[in-house]
# Entry
Amino acid sequence: MHSIKLIGIYGEFKTNLESGQMVTYTPDELVAQLANAEWGDGHNRGIEQKIKNARFLNKADLDNLYYDSGPSHSIGGM
# Structure
C-alpha cells in the first residue's frame, strides 16, 4: 500500500496490526476506518504543503505568544 502511495491507509493498517485491534472491526468498519485515514492523511499533507509553499518569514508557536492582561481600551473613548 505504501508503494502505491496510500500512505494514510498504510499507516492506519500498520497501527491496527501492531495494536491487535483489527479483530474488533467488522469488514465494513475496517474499510471505513481505512478510507477515513487516507482522506485525513491526504488533507493534512495538503495543508502542510500549502504552509510550506506560503514561505512564512517567521515561525510561530503558541508558547511564544504574549497575552497582555492590562486594562482594555475601548473604541470611541467610552
Remarks:
- The radius of gyration is 22 Å.
- Helices lie at 7-19, 27-54.
